[in-house]
Each structure stands twice: as structure tokens, then as C-alpha cells.
């Protein structure tokens, strides 16, 4: 249905948030079929937002893309603000290096939500250790494999078919047959391309 709550979030944000897995990559995606804002006045020119409103909108976009709760997202931003360097770049790097996001980027799950569920159910090992925490931060050189017990599940063959067509990011490496992967390096801003004005988010938390 077009009125699906996840599709409404994308239309309200004005960009794809990739909340519905494979559907987001097909012509059935709401952002292709009906990209205007939801509601009877969706096609009308939107009213001008205040600076605070713009900051809030960008924050909501990024938070929803990664499927984080308000408190958890705030911790990431404030952590980036405390470190030396470009806060926006540090924030994106930490979000991208979350295990659930890496599983999604590898093409082993069709959405970050599905990736999170797979991690929680113990599907993966990082450097030989079972890791069931979606927020676990991987680092350069880390090896990620499926737990041996999960490799027998029927879904694995389906995943192998899907990864053959998946556009893998430069910072990750994946063997399509064994489904073993390696974090080659930390992602750069250009490789991430969030479609969000990160400066607005930094301003929001710097007030």
C-alpha cells in the first residue's frame, strides 16, 4: 500500500531512507511512484522552515536511515563533537562502521532492520567471535563470517544469489561463495553519500 508508514517517512523526508528492503530498489518504491510529501496538500509548495526546523528535519532523516532511537543517535553525535577532527565525517564513519550497517552494505540483508535482526539472532562472527550486538563497531582488518550453524539455513543460498548482483562499497570485500568478508578500510565521506546535510545536524547539537 502507498500509505505504508515506512513509505510515508521517506516521502516526508524527501529522500529514500531504504526502510523497506528490496522494494526500495524497484519501480514500486514510493519515492519513484509518488515522491511528493504525504497528505492532501503534499503537492503544494512546502512552507519555508525555520533554521531550527531545517536542522530537525536533517536530524530525523539520518536517524531514520540508520534506524536509531533518539537517545542512541544523540550519543553518536555528541561523541563525534568531543573528538578532534571534522565532526560530520567522524559521525558518519561511526554510523557506517556499526555491524548491522556493514551487514547491510555487504548485501547480506535487504535492509538495516533485517541486518539488525540477523545480528541479534547470532548469525555472525567477527574475528572468530560470535557477535550479537548491532551497535558493535568494526574496524579496518576485521573479518566477518556467518556462524557455522546458520550456514545450513535455506536463506543462505538466497543470499548467495543476491550478493552476485550487489554493488559492494570499495571499503568492503566479500567472497560470494563462502560469504566471508573483510573490512578493507574506513569509509570516506564520498563513499558514504548519505544525502543529508550533516552541518545542520552538527548545528542542532551544538546549540
Keywords, please?
207 residues; alpha+beta; Ribosomal Protein S4 Delta 41, Chain A, domain 1; Structural Genomics Hypothetical 15.5 Kd Protein In mrcA-pckA Intergenic Region, Chain A; 2 domains; five-stranded antiparallel sheet; 5 strands; 43% helix; 7% strand; globular
Structural write-up:
The chain is α+β, with helices and mostly antiparallel strands and 207 residues long. The protein has 2 domains: 5-36 and 49-95 and 193-206, Ribosomal protein S4/S9, N-terminal domain (Ribosomal Protein S4 Delta 41, Chain A, domain 1); 98-183, Structural Genomics Hypothetical 15.5 Kd Protein In mrcA-pckA Intergenic Region, Chain A, CATH 3.10.290. The protein has helices spanning 5-13, 30-33, 51-65, 70-82, 87-96, 99-105, 112-120, 155-163, 189-192, 198-206; strands spanning 124-126, 129-130, 143-146, 172-174, 181-183. The termini are far apart.
In the CATH hierarchy, what is the class of the largest domain?
A: Mainly Alpha
Number of strands: 5
Number of helices: 10
Query: Rounded to an integer, what's the Rg over CA atoms?
Result: 18 Å
Question: Which fold does the CATH topology of the largest domain refer to?
Answer: Ribosomal Protein S4 Delta 41, Chain A, domain 1
Give me the side-by-side strand order of the main sheet. Answer: 2-1-3-5-4
- Derived from helix and strand composition plus strand pairing, the structural class reads alpha+beta
Question: How many separate structural domains?
Answer: 2
Question: Biggest β-sheet, characterized?
Answer: 5 strands, antiparallel
The stretches of 5 or more residues where confidence is low (pLDDT under 50) are: none
Percent of residues in helices:
40-55%
Distance between the termini: 40 Å
Shape: globular
